[in-house]
Design goal:
Largest sheet: none
Number of strands: 0
Shape: flat
CATH superfamily of the largest domain: UbiA prenyltransferase
Number of domains: 2
Helix content: over 70%
Distance between the termini: 58 Å
CATH class of the largest domain: Mainly Alpha
Strand content: under 5%
CATH architecture of the largest domain: Orthogonal Bundle
Order of helices and strands: HHHHHHHHHHHHHHH
Length: about 300
């Protein structure tokens, strides 16, 4: 009985995509602290309730993604063991709908009453954008799905910023732009590595619709564009030399990954190189946000 309950909890947790949500919360936390001069300016209640609210809403969107994609998940090796695909998970689609609804409503209410209206509404828009527009429509409608739908996933640093400040500022939108441009090379690398899965499931990812060679070129172009965009915080005075040097090192590594992938010719080599780039892209984004935060407080303590 205890083992069954533990397994059920694990399955519910898996529905929330905890690793993806964790990365989103890291960027949200950085957004919070970049909004103010010192660490002490972020109230503990804002930090806790803000991240719980954002995390719950992001988890709700993730559950919808599992729910809507359960048929195609069963056709792909990467996702065939997801809870809603397996018949022994003890989680029915009905239970998943209730779970997602509770997470979404609780998260929205927390943000509305514990943080501010702006953050609550922006988070709700982000949830609908990912769960409804991207998962429900764009993913199956166009090879530009991840480009358009990536805007919803780019929102967390803006949500963190508004949670603390209560209003928009251009700097927060720069953080959104960075994640927005980072998303295509990040996800297209995975799509190349799992090309056969996406082709089998008939999902119009770019490698499937336009070919791997074209996708690899797009990845190179996007990583170059990302290198330009990530320098903007330095050029507008939002960050200093610590960030600039750190992000240049990261960008060189990311571009080298893209170039190496573009040069790969054999199918197995492409898949291995693409998967390595996908994993590095996660490290890249995490380090970038850590570096910009370090730079921010280094400048304010001088």
């Amino acid at each position: 009985m205890i083992l069954t309950k533990f397994t059920s909890v694990q399955h519910y947790l898996e529905l929330c995509k905890p690793r993806v949500v964790l990365l989103m919360l890291i960027t949200a936390i950085v957004g919070m602290y970049l909004a103010v001069p010192t660490f002490a300016d972020v109230h503990l209640s804002t930090l806790i309730w803000g991240n719980i609210g954002i995390g719950f809403c992001a988890s709700a969107a993730a559950v919808v993604n599992h729910l809507v994609d359960r048929r195609i998940d069963g056709l792909m090796k990467r996702t065939e063991r997801r809870p809603l695909v397996q018949g022994n998970s003890n989680i029915s689609p009905y239970k998943a709908v209730i779970f997602s609804s509770v997470l979404g409503v609780v998260g929205f209410v927390i943000l509305l009453f514990k943080i501010n209206t702006l953050t609550a509404l922006l988070t709700l828009i982000s949830l609908v954008g990912y769960a409804g527009i991207y998962t429900g429509y764009l993913k199956r409608a166009t090879p530009q799905n991840i480009v358009i739908g990536g805007l919803a996933g780019a929102a967390p640093p803006l949500l963190g910023w508004t949670a603390v400040s209560g209003h928009f500022v251009p700097q927060s939108l720069l953080l959104v732009l960075i994640i927005f441009i980072w998303t295509p090379p990040h996800f297209w690398a995975l799509a190349i590595a799992r090309y056969e899965d996406y082709a089998k499931a008939e999902i119009p990812m770019m490698p499937v619709t336009h070919g791997i060679a074209f996708t690899k070129l797009q990845i190179v172009l996007y990583t170059i564009l990302l290198a330009v965009v990530t320098c903007l915080p330095f050029f507008v005075g939002m960050s200093g030399y610590i960030y600039f040097i750190g992000v240049m090192v990261l960008n060189i590594q990311f571009i080298l990954c893209a170039v190496k992938l573009n040069k790969a010719k054999k199918k197995q080599e492409e898949a291995i190189t693409a998967l390595k780039m996908f994993h590095f892209s996660i490290t890249y984004l995490t380090l970038l946000f850590i570096i910009i935060l370090i730079d921010h407080y280094w400048r304010y303590t001088l």
